[in-house]
């Protein structure tokens, strides 16, 4: 009887672990760089801001490595839109707005 109960507990624990991991991963999957607010962006370190901008560019169907100058310009546009200045960790404008609103995506990739 003890062995059967122990096996049931292990199976239950395994199922709970799978459900928990699945829930956590689905939460991560729904988090997109494009939905990052200016406040969230400003609170990130420089490296994380760069990653967020690159991921946002990818989410809009572009390759951030295809034009380093274009990616730098988008990053600069986001900084200006949010009022984030180098070394600052606070947005001074558009605080709760999404950073993707800083870019006119219909003009990206055009000369």
Describe the protein's architecture and organization.
The protein is mainly α and 111 residues long. The chain is built from four helices and no strands. The termini are far apart.
**Which class do the helix and strand fractions yield?**
mainly alpha
Which regions are unreliable across 5 or more consecutive residues at pLDDT < 50? 11-30
Largest sheet: number of strands, sense, barrel closure: none
Strand content: under 5%
Based on Cα principal axes, name the global outline. Answer: globular
> How helical, in percent, are the residues?
55-70%
- Radius of gyration (CA) equals 21 Å
Distance between the termini: 75 Å
Number of helices: 4
Please tell me the overall pLDDT.
80
What is this entry, summarized?
This protein has helices at residues 2-29, 38-43, 46-59, 68-82.
Provide the fold topology.
Layout: H1 2-29, H2 38-43, H3 46-59, H4 68-82
What keyword list fits this structure?
57% helix, 4 helices, mainly alpha, globular, 111 residues
């Amino acid at each position: 009887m003890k062995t059967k109960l122990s096996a049931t507990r292990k199976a239950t624990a395994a199922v709970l672990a799978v459900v928990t991991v699945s829930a956590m991963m689905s939460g991560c999957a729904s988090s997109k760089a494009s939905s990052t607010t200016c406040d969230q962006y400003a609170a990130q370190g420089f490296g994380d801001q760069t990653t967020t901008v690159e991921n946002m560019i990818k989410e809009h169907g572009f390759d951030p490595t295809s034009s380093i100058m274009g990616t730098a310009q988008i990053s600069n546009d986001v900084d200006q839109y949010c009022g984030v200045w180098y070394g600052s960790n606070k947005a001074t404008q558009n605080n709760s707005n999404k950073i993707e609103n800083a870019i006119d995506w219909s003009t990206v990739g055009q000369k």
